[in-house]
Amino acid sequence: MMRTWEYHLIGVPQYVVPSHHYFSKTAGPSLHNQVSDKIKCALRNAICGKVHLTTYTWTSKHGQGRYISLTAHWVNVEAAGPQAESSLAHVLPPPRIAGHHSLPPVASSSYLASSSSASTSSSSQPHTFTPNFSTARGKRQQAILKLICLGDRPHTAQELWRGIEQQTDEWFLPVGLKPGLVVCDNGRNLVAVLGLAGLMDIPCLAHVLNLVVQKFIHNYPDMSELLHKVRAVCARFQRSHPAAARLSALQQNFSLPAHRLICDVPTRWNSTLHTLARLCEQQHTIVEFQLQHARVIRTVEQHHFTTNDWASMRELCALLHCFEYSTNMASGDDTIISVTIPLLCLLEKTLRAMMEE
């Protein structure tokens, strides 16, 4: 099948593909400037004087050192109501009141400018307002401001803060904004950086839940032995084509989904959950395969799953599903910080009910 770009090249033979210098020197910087201008315009319309941040650090697998990302979160005002469903309203920045960070449920229509005037007007030209929109609503915005490369050498809290401060000064100072709360992991260097800057850090709930589950998986009695057996069985079907073909035939016999087994990544506990859930889904095929294999070699292999193993896997899936649900709730685009305490209470209540059962 001919690909789209091949079709266009054949249809227009005189077209010349731009060189890589064009993309690196012209197209790339132009796209960067356009996106930056849109972000700065959105920040200029933020309804309060502070922009909250989230940060995350990680180490490159390709030996390029450590990185830290900086993401901004703020709220803009947009048109609301039935007349605004098919219209795009450009919003004028409302007055920022010191210490006031909440959006009133109904905003005056004087904050809403018409699309035509907002796109062409400047600071020296008066804005015209759209009388059709009588209400407004807050809309959450977010943008990744910078991906900072820290390199291989160790970085002190002062050096890390200088890198973050450079970005906050570049994005926030020109529009009269200040950094607010910062959500990050429990890394000592980041916590020290925020303390040095006088910013309040909030531990990332998803990261805390990850540490809890990782500690449970590594320290719970008999857990490592069970996971070792699970990984050995899954790896066997990944490596052996005859075993995978036999598994597919058994799936048809038992009318089960034709799903391949999953090999988990030990550093990602949610992949361990998906591996166990897939095994439980294919329990009948796995048991039948192991019984047939035992009859052929006249012995039970080392990684044969027992009844207790299957029961443990199902209990472990039920347990980890609770943490996966909580993690997804805490990581959603529309999640707010006030959901943290109710979510933890629900998780604790669910775990206690599971222990009583």
How would you characterize this protein structure?
The chain is α/β, with parallel strands linked by helices and about 350 residues long. The protein has twelve helices and seven strands. A five-stranded mixed sheet has the order 5-2-1-6-7. A two-stranded antiparallel sheet has the order 3-4. Strand 6, helix 5 and strand 7 form a beta-alpha-beta unit. Helix 6 runs antiparallel to helix 11 and helix 11 (about 305-330) packs antiparallel against helix 12 (about 340-355). The model is unreliable at about 95-135 (pLDDT under 50).
List the helices and strands and how they pair.
Layout: H1 4-11, H2 20-44, E1 50-59, E2 66-80, E3 90-91, E4 112-113, H3 115-120, E5 135-151, H4 157-171, E6 178-184, H5 188-197, E7 201-203, H6 205-219, H7 223-239, H8 241-253, H9 269-281, H10 283-297, H11 307-331, H12 340-356
Parallel strand pairs: 1-6, 6-7
Antiparallel strand pairs: 1-2, 2-5, 3-4
